[in-house]
Amino acid sequence: MAHQIRLISGALTVGVWTLLSRILGFVRDVLIAAWLGTGPVAEAFLIAFALPNMFRRFFAEGAFNMAFVPLFSKKLEARADAEAFARDAFSGLATLLVVFTFVATLFMPWLVIAMASGFVGDERFDLTVTLGRVVFPYILFISLAALVSGVLNASGRFAAAAAAPVFLNVILISALLLASSAFADRSILPEGTDGGAEGTALAFGVILAGAVQLAIVWIAARRAGFDLRPKKPVWTPELKRLAIIAAPAALAGGVVQVNLLIGRQVAS
């Protein structure tokens, strides 16, 4: 009976926070459409934001987490050193993503071409590259947040992991409103930069939101007794097994992303 009550409570917690996130996400999209419309800034931001979210399918809620959560849950149930495994996974993933983010930032023009080659030759291309370099580190924060959320969910703590995504929408809405208020008089902006302030604010808002989401779940995990402070990464047998399990899921996810890339190329 207690297990059923806990299950229902967890489902309600996740459901309420998810509903709130969806509502705020709708408000966010409405505001972006209202202020940015369908102009070059809107298109540049949407493509820039799509880049980290595309790779998120591999590192965050995608292949990596699909492999990590079952392994962590088994260690937790067996009362093995689940915390050490989670810390090793956190440190390894963080190291991988720091390197990946650095490389992606350097090659951002080519990533934009791969995502939206139709932008080449007009103002959208340079703007997308600039915003993409600002936004891309979001993959680091959100992937680590997803891993920590997996730790919390596996240990039966759902509130923080469910609430964290709400802050992305709250921060983006706030960034958009602040930028719009600061530049309410469009006549002070240089010609051709309409919407640029909001686009830049949204880009930096994404990074802030990612950091806040990670902080929320990391603090919750710390309070739950999981010390996930990063350390020097070590290639352990458990991490090797994690990589082997994640590889097929990553390949499957890659097929989906190729389809999305083709769709975006056609749309651009």
What do these coordinates show?
The chain is mainly α. The protein has one domain. The protein has helices at 2-36, 40-59, 63-77, 82-106, 108-115, 123-135, 138-154, 159-182, 196-223, 237-267. Helix 3 runs antiparallel to helix 4 (82-106) and helix 3 runs parallel beside helix 7 (138-154). The N and C termini lie far apart (54 Å). The model is unreliable at 185-193 (pLDDT under 50).
Helix content: over 70%
Oligomeric state: single chain
Count helical runs: 10
Distance between the termini: 54 Å
Q: Which percent range describes the beta-strand content?
A: under 5%
**Which sequence of SSEs, written as H and E, runs from N to C?**
HHHHHHHHHH
Radius of gyration: 20 Å
Instruction: Report the biggest beta sheet as strand number plus sense, adding barrel if it closes.
Output: none
Number of domains: 1
Task: Tell me the number of strands.
Answer: 0
Structural class: mainly alpha
Unreliable parts: 185-193
Shape: globular
> What is the residue-mean pLDDT, rounded to a whole number?
80
Write a concise keyword list for the protein shown above.
globular, 268 residues, mainly alpha
